Structure formats: C-alpha cells, structure tokens
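Illustration: HNH domain-containing protein.
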Amino acid sequence: MAHIPEEAHVVAYYLAKFPDSYKNLEPNKNMTNLLISYSRFFSMPDSSLKRLRDEYDAFFPHRAGYKGAEKRSSRVKVNDSLKKLSEPELHEKVLNIVNEESALLPEIETGTPLWEGKKVQIQVNKFERNRYARAACIEHHGLTCQCCLNNMGELYGEIAEGIIEVHHIKPISEIGVDYQIDPIIDLVPLCPNCHRVVHKRNPPYTVEEVQSAFKKI
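Result:
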C-alpha cells in the first residue's frame, strides 16, 4: 500500500475498534460508502481505507481480522499510541480530521446569542461547536495565530490562504452544559502547529505559556 497519511490511520483504527462508529460520522452512508468517501478525502484509491481498516481488525477480538495479515510494526505503533483513548476521545479526534469547517457562513443578525457546548446524544457524547462563533472569532481576531503571530497565507501564499483553527480557551468538555459563548473572549485563532502544542497537555497549555515557549526559540 502506498504512503498513507497519519490521519487515515486514526480513522481506520477507529472504524476497526468500534465497528458501528460509522453511524455516528455520517448516518446517511453505510460502512462501504463511508470508507470509499474517506479514501477519496485522503486522496487514496477507493479500496485503501477498507484495506487499512481490515488490517487493524487484527488487534480486536470482536473482529475476524484481516485474513493473512500480520501485525506490522507500523500498525503496532499506531495501536500503542491510540489504544488508551476512549470511544468519545477517538470520535472527537476523527471529527477534527474529517470535519474541517469553513468560516464562510450566511450572515446572522448582530447581537444574536451564540450557544454551544450542548451534548448531542449519539452513541457517545460529542460537544457541539457553534460555527457562527468560529466565524465571529475569525472576523474579530483575523487569520493571524495568536501564539506565533504567523499568518498561513502570508507564509505559504495562496495555497494556505484562510487556514486557521479556533481554540476554546476553556475546553467545552469541562463545562458540560449549554453556555452562551463570547467568540471574542472565549475563542482564539491558532495555527495548526500552535493549536497542537496547546493540546499536548491536559488541561491544555494557555496561549500565554505557548507564546512564552515560542519566544525562547
């Protein structure tokens, strides 16, 4: 199998460990269609993600396993890095990979309360994020990372224009109830690198802590 993106391994592992999880990702698709769709998402041949999922079946007694496949060292490494994650944690990780949201949304009336953090009952609890809040955060703060002060479009040119992630200063999973969010105070735009650094610890590092570390380089 050709080079496979790291993110594709996470998705394949999740679908192998929790076989019914595809229903929580795209309820209108069966497993076969979802695997084809995600293979294309990762710019791989249609059968690639299914084959990868089949390989990870070998790690779980509730699956028949990929016939004839050995537990290759690269697959063992992925299993070791992900096996301690719960179903909700893996689900959230997969959503972050496959659900890249655009900040280009229809306008809403100024002053409209923005709510998020509602627990949406599926087979696991997923904390709902408000896309309008994301858009409002970016509109106010812009596309410059508030940690490293880099703008992806300025660094890479047109191919990276608009790439930015929005970080919840207080993780909504800690709040556990609906709350009215202030997209200017509660959210901050971060580049993918800084956002990943922020979440290397639980609880996450503060933006100020990452800023301080960056300045020491």
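Reading the tokens back as a structure: The first helix runs from residue 6 to 17.
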